[in-house]
Amino acid sequence: MDNSLKLQKRTPSFLEILRSYGTLIAGLLIVLCFCILQPDTFATLDNAITVSRQISFLVMIALGATLIMAVGEFDLSIGAMASLGGIFAAQLAVAGYPIWAAYLITLVVAFIIGFINGWIVTRFRVLSFITTLGMGTILGGFTFWLSDGATIFEGIPASFRYIGQEKLFNLPFLSFIMLILTLIFWYLMSQTTFGRKLYAIGGNEAAARASGIRIRLNKNMAFALCALLASLTGILMASRLGSAQPTGGDGLFLPAYAAVFLGMTTFKEGIPNIWGTFLGATILGILENGLTIMEVPPFLQNVITGLIVIAAVVLQKIGQSESR
């Protein structure tokens, strides 16, 4: 009896603490370091607002990647989809379409393409990273053809730039959109039957099928929503910049999955989750912002970011091994 109580009250080991709270602790330490090193530029309200706008794109596209990873798949076309979304919406706006129509048409096209990705994966049992790698190549080629390989900036109406550049209560619209989408997809994944089905599929697809869950439909919807979020990210990037680049979304692909992996080390260990992804994207955004303020070269920023992601994942695995 006494032994069992002692086991129940066992003090968590150092590695177990790192596994559970390491990412959050690392994020706080990063903030503290930058506050000490650059107090006049980093530790300001204006910079905090800037960071919230900068991470908005990463958070949005990473939310889609979270859905895909929840069902145990990957979508390597999200960067190309973001690029296409920005180019396509900008061209529709230049052609005279109402802004709401330019946005809506682009998002519908992205949803359909994402659904096709899922259909190919589920119908023909093709590996998702191969399918989406091929689709991303197709989308990249189509984007270059659509834009002639050039940045679109002439003729873009001011109304197209409104959402990306305006503020509300001194906060960027983009920050509000990021928070609203995070809340929506947190609710979708944690409080609805659809979200529970996605987690069931990712946890054990055979068991999910045996319980009557429609695997194909739910996976297809996950891919479709992922593509829609990637396209929305590209549209809002173009709105923010007032121009659309044929490779504008390419730089978001790896950070998006890095954010998801970081998020898997917090809140729900080893499971993709919305608030974990939000935290992961925030840490990456703060890290990039602080290193830029310190004038650290971009290549070294990539090295540091990669090391942090690898360290977080390794520490989680070490903690899991020890707990067994």
TrEMBL record:
Major location (coarse): membrane
Subcellular location per the Swiss-Prot or TrEMBL entry: Cell membrane
Keywords: Cell inner membrane, Cell membrane, Membrane, Transmembrane, Transmembrane helix, Transport
Record bears the keyword Cell membrane: yes
A Gene Ontology term for the protein's cellular component: plasma membrane
GO molecular function: transmembrane transporter activity
Spans traversing the lipid bilayer: 21-39, 51-69, 100-120, 127-147, 167-188, 221-239, 274-293, 299-318
Topology of the protein relative to the lipid bilayer: Multi-pass membrane protein
Protein name stated in the entry: Ribose transport system permease protein
Organism: Seinonella peptonophila
Taxonomic path: Bacteria, Bacillati, Bacillota, Bacilli, Bacillales
